[in-house]
Write a structure and sequence with these properties.
The chain is mostly beta strands. The protein has a single domain, classed as Lipoprotein localisation LolA/LolB/LppX (outer membrane lipoprotein receptor (LolB), chain A, Clam), CATH 2.50.20.10. Helix content is about 10%, strand content about 40%. The chain contains three helices and twelve strands, in the order ααββββββαββββββ. The protein is globular. The two termini are about 30 Å apart.
Length: about 220
Amino acid sequence: MSFLKYVLSAFKIQPISQAVLLLAMAPWTHGASEDVAKLQSMLKPMSTVSAKFVQHSFDGKGSILQTLEGELKAKAPGKFRWQTLPPYEQLLVTNGKTLWLYDQDLEQVTVQPLDKRVESTPALMLSGELNQIEQAYDVYAEQLQDEWHFVLIPKASGALFDRLRLEFDAKHKLQRMVIKDEIGQKTVLSFTQVANGITLEDALFTFEPPKGVDVITQGEIANP
């Protein structure tokens, strides 16, 4: 399942890909609050973040289904911009209240209020509230030399994913995200050119539909 599918499943919008990748779990230690505190310390510098990514999707036999490239920008609280590049070009933008999905090939923009479940999707949590992590997830941490890896398992039933793995490099920058859903589908996102604590204008997190495209509005849209 692609990252976009975790977001779009709450809105019954079809994504551009699905993903399956087997995740080999190492022996994880569970320090409860200690693990949560360590993860929070890793995420705190990401109150603003910009990065490029490569997303790989695989089937259950390990054969690659699709490779996507793109760029993300996030700003706490709740602002997020996710863009995939051609040939699978889509743009997802949220200001924390409204979500826009622009499909250039279809010449269509879907506009909806941001669902609370969507705020807990893997990448959007990077722009979320750190103090909610312990309430929402069981966190398991492992240190591999200078790297830190975390597995987050949602506590609530009906979550949009079953397991999330975050990997941070020796400089404490996010380098990989592995997502598993309840039926075993998985997505691997590898990040490069990660920049934390940079200035990101709020204008990046709103969207004005281009002239001539179809605009589909679903639900009651909040004022900016």
